[in-house]
Amino acid sequence: MKHMNSEVKEERTANKKRIDLFLVPIVLIAAFLNLFKIWTDEYANAYYTAAVKSMLQSFHNFFYASFDPGGYVTIDKPPVVFWIQTISAKIFGFHGWSVILPQALAGIGSVLLLYVLVKRTFGVWAGRFAALAMALTPIVPAVSRTNNIDSMLVFTLLVATWMLFRAVRTAKFGWVLAAFAMIGVAFNMKMLQAYMVLPAFYVFYVVATKITWKKKIAFLTTATALMLAVSVSWAVVVDSTSADKRPYMGSSQTNSVLELAFGYNGINRLTGNTSVTGSSHKQPAQTQQQTASSETKQTSNSSADSSQSSNQRKSSSSQKMQAPGGGNQNGMFNTGNPGPFRLFQKGLSDQISWLLPFVIFSIVGLFAGVKFKGPYTTKQKESLFWLAWLLPVAVFFSIAGFFHQYYLIMLAPPIAAFAGVGAVALWSMYKQRNGWKPWLLPGGVLTTAALQVYIMSPYVSSIGVAPIAGVGALGVILALVLAVRKQRKNLLTNYLGAAAMVVLLAMPAYWAMTPIIYGGNSMLPAAGPDSSSGMGGPPSTATNSKQSGFNGMQPPGSSSGNSSSNNQMQPPSGSSNGGQMQMPGGSSNNGQMQLPSGSSNSGQMQMPGGSSNNSQMPNSSSSKSSSLKRKSGGMNAEVNQKLLNYLTKSNTGEKYLFATTDSTSAAPYIIKTGKPVMAMGGFSGSDPILTVSKLKAMIKKGEVKYFYLSGMGKGGQSDVITWIKENSKEIPSSKWQSTSSSAQQGPSGNGTLYEITLK
What strands lie across the sheet with 729-730, from one edge to the other? Predict the structure, then answer.
């Protein structure tokens, strides 16, 4: 009891102290990186933004996180983050920035929470360094500037961490329950990804609490049961509701939340089985490359606003585009190939690994001489917590078959914590006169600078030689000087230590700013000079930041006067035939995509079912998409106004404005009009939602009449697509197809509009 009272009294005394003035600029930096110009992103991730638009319209849509206002299909994630986004949109109005705002604030909140968590045990300077490292970890602001889930997920897990630490300090079981319940809430944000921190929670509670083993087991068992109950609460309600009274659970194959959680959003991420057709076998690399995932099919690129259109990005030599899953070093979706050094490969290292060598040296120093059986100091216990968070997550990302770069934000808290703790701990060891520990600081500086040079080297054409050479030279010089002066304890040595930390944080700081400088990608957030491409590899040769993305693509029904002889994706080298990326449903000459190369005849992108004359990318001189607003929400983040006018005038009371194969074509129209648009096969067009008999019944009821098809139906939708084509009347393209040369382009390409009426 005395211990508990002293802890509470100490905490109250600490809270009465004035604000840490060194923390203020760190928070301002985080606010700038997370908030600046988010108002230019009009659509954000259109798949999720469309859901928010739908959820604003009824409690039914709100509770189930329905993708469309008609309640036909849900999005492929649990609803908690989207509930928060919907509330934000309700308060501030429906805008791209209002759905991004909660994640941006969560990113800032994570910086503050990490400061609080580290400062209490390791001191104020450790807290400051940890907070700054978190703010400058490139993937953190890159994700927080979008309406993707991960920033809010990390913030929630840090809140759970704060509760767990408090539970240990106060010896109150209620805080243990609260901590594990918060993980259950996080599960309802991104399912099994929230459980990645569980090893840290179990290990820390067992080691840190001074109670009997019997109580430890009882408390952890009870807390785990509560966590599981909170985790599956929404799933049980949804799965126990009759299927005809709720939307279909998007991206599941059995219309089940639990199947989605433990399959598509669970084990499949580890095994790499990205099948969307319900097959259980693991796909080969080439098939993985050709499979559209829930977060990947819409690899539309947001681009920077017009004020950045003069930024030039040049390439000194042709670079072959690394196709996802094709066995090259960039791996599937530029996440590298599985192995112990995966986090040091291109595509991942520049998102999260800038300080990893320094962290490794810090861990060595912190745990040197620690006995397995203890006893442990408070610093060692909390260091063990961060290590138990870091290692399992790092192992997962080193071996997982399928994930995206922005998932790496899960590694940011432990890396930032060890960076802050290590900066202070290694400096303290450096001041020792004997032994090997004084060498850890110069060793950490040298190896970290070397890694940063390696990370930046593929981007020499974008950032130049100077920053790369500067970091390398300064890192070597400072490490050598620190090694030479390690017996001298004076003010100059202190300045050298501070300068070393500045050098190591300089390029992560620049990388963290790249989504602002070059434009971000709301679909696949990634930092770097190619941040608007969302592919996280070596930079493209687009002539300006507006041309570096896929945004501004043609919506259903629009056409362009420009043509190409094929539908290839050109790598960012300007080459006419290298580095082609096969997309789902494509063939060797049709169904491929071409990245913008800055040429008037290049930069073409054709998706399955499209035609070559509808694949011209808009350039800065012909497209209005490079104006103040970024419409980065999808490959067809614009609507075809002529098509919309035709469908609106021709509607005779049907529930759905029109039906299409997938969410990519439907999302912009939902955002624009707020009217129901049916994505027959869910996100990717492959969910087994609809059958021919169900569709007939819907048509007879007068629920849907028009169908826009672009040849993208897959899996269980193929029979439905065939039936529609055989039993419908084709609408002449002159009635609905836009011919404007400045029309935006999209994956639907040269699709066809059909009308079906049954008696």
Answer: 678-679, 659-660, 706-709, 752-755, 729-730
The encoded tokens of residue 83 equal 């509930």
- In tens, the pLDDT along 512-522 reads 999 999 998 89
Measured CA to CA, the distance from residue 176 to residue 168 in angstroms comes to 8
Helix ranges, 349-464 (H): 349-352, 356-367, 378-399, 412-430, 440-456, 460-463
Pick from 261, 264, 296: nearest CA to 277: 264
3 state DSSP class of 754: strand
Q: Cα(38)–Cα(693) distance, rounded to whole angstroms? A: 45
Written as one letter, the residue type at 386 is: W
φ, ψ for residue 536 (rounded to 5)? Answer: 60, 15
Which amino acid would we find at residue 467?
Answer: P
Residue 232 CB burial class (10 angstroms; 0-12, 13-18, ≥19):
middle
The region of weakest confidence among 144-148, 207-211, 590-594 is: 590-594
Rounded CA separation 364/346 (Å): 26
pTM score, two decimals? 0.82
With 60 as the cut, is the pLDDT of residue 591 above it? Answer: no
**What is the rounded CA–CA span in Å between residue 185 and residue 188?**
5
pLDDT greater at residue 182 or residue 683: 182
Find out whether 401 and 272 touch, Cβ atoms under 8 Å. Answer: yes
List the structure tokens of 25.
Answer: 């600029």
pLDDT of residue 497: 87
Specify the residue for token string 């400096």: 427
The residue written with tokens 């983050």 in the block is 81
Burial of 264 (0-12, 13-18, 19+ CB in 10 A): buried
Q: Helix (H, G, I), strand (E, B), or coil: what is residue 419?
A: helix
Pick the closest to residue 190 from 59, 75, 100, 23 (CA basis).
Answer: 75
> Taking the C-alpha atoms of 584, 590, 594 and 598 in order, what is their torsion angle to the nearest 10 degrees?
-160
Distance of CA 694 to the CA centre of its chain: 35
How is 573-617 classified by DSSP, letter by letter?
Answer: T--SSSS-EE-TT--SSSSEE----S-TT---B--TT--GGG-PP
CB atoms < 10 A from the CB of 223, how many?
25
Cβ distance 656 to 678 under 8 Å?
Answer: yes
Query: 707 in helix, strand or coil?
Result: strand
C-alpha to C-alpha distance for 133 and 119, rounded to whole angstroms: 14
The token pair that represents 189 in the structure block: 């944000």
**Beta partners for residue 605, in sequence order:** 593
